[in-house]
UniProtKB/TrEMBL annotation:
Cofactor(s), names only, from the UniProt record: Mg(2+)
Organism whose genome encodes this protein: Actinoplanes friuliensis DSM 7358
Disordered, as annotated region: 248-271
A biological process from GO: RNA methylation
TM stretches of this protein: none
EC number(s) from the headed UniProt entry: 2.1.1.386
GO molecular-function terms, A-Z: metal ion binding; RNA binding; small RNA 2'-O-methyltransferase activity
Protein family: Belongs to the methyltransferase superfamily. HEN1 family.
Gene3D superfamilies: Hen1, N-terminal domain, Vaccinia Virus protein VP39
Protein name: Small RNA 2'-O-methyltransferase
Superkingdom, taxonomy of origin: Bacteria
CDD domains, per the entry: AdoMet_MTases (cd02440)
Amino acid sequence: MLLTVTTTRRPATDLGYLLVKHPDKVHSFDVPTGTAHVLFPDAADDRCTAALLLDVDPQRLARGGRKQQSAPESFALGQFVNDRPYAASSLLAGALAKVFRSALRGESKDRPELANEAIPLEIHVPVLRCRGSAAALFEPLGWTVTATAIPLDDVPDGHPLAGDSPYVDLTLTGTLRLADALNHLYVLMPVLDDAKHYWVAPDEIDKLLRAGEGWLADHPEKVLITRRYLAHRRSLAASALEQLDRVDPDSVDAPADTVTDEEAELPVERKQSLAEQRRDAVLAAVAESGATRVLDLGCGGGALLSGLMKDRRYTEIIGTDVSSRALDLAHRRLRLDNVPERQQGRVKLWQSALTYRDDRLRGYDAAVLMEVVEHVDPPRLPALEASVFGHASPATVVVTTPNAEYNVLYEGLTGMRHSDHRFEWTRAEFQDWAARTATAHGYAVSFRGVGDLDETHGTPTQMAIFTKEEA
């Protein structure tokens, strides 16, 4: 199977520095399913092409067949008679990750400035098994997509198998950083193939988040991408989506065994996800408070900030997070470099830890802790309470957190909803914490549920609204 990367940025042979491969040599690497070769069929000042050729060893592939998560070859000799040596798939993505490791990370010892520069690129994958629309996945990332269906050979008209094959000849053109281009391919080739040819373990979530940094959280097909990349393992997809956008497990539109991809892609009315319901509920609570200056504490990638920005009643919006990476994602998501001049300064992003007092946070009308408190170690909660409710002391504080009682309704979920959760409260535990915090800092508190109500287990998200009492 073959993949080529071409650039016309002069000197084009600098592509070799970015890929850490000399254009005058053939580079070979042993990979679990065969041998990967990197060569440069075209290396001139005005145009340079690097080719990744994966020579699959069918015997190695067959020996690893028992470990495959979802093998599409279901007949008796499927491990030996298949398209794997010829069609781009997760095997090629795995080889790409091994041989272009530095380029995927955006690192170049010899050309560091070029590694951060968007350059003209053309990616060609001659044979890619394609379930769904390549354009729908690549075009939102800035690519111009040409996906030509490959017809079946020697099949006469009228034969049941006549027509196009399930493969396409894919060409992508665009001006992007090479690292971004390679990460797009690493994730989306197996997504289009819709098969993983190795066992998908929880560490695949980290690989997806690492490769999807800066683009996957805002992709319109992120749920489909996440579900397919993680081999339709619902619990893994739920965890990945929550980390992308603080999304709870029901954000996966449907279990893979009840809704097919073909059905999921039909233009049917989509049920609002829990993340969207929660965001709308928080926005409604903040609006009801009459606030105009709002803090989003622990803003993550900026999902709530995006909603606040759209409402003109808010004259000052501050997002804080302890993670500089999260703030970078929020900055890109909100496109703060491109806001109109009259809007500049209305939204600010600050790095701040909620367990330490920060004088910048004092005097605001409302503060939101949306799916934040459960990420704090229990011994540090009193410090958060003192910092937010005592020192910053906004007029209104809105807090949401998972309802642990509801977890039994998530099929396949074991333990807590997120690997970084330090705890998850029952309704009684949350209300007890909220009542004690309100009393200690001069607030009244009321409670709401968010999401589908179960008569026994309540709602998946619980919300507390703290209102500062008059002195």
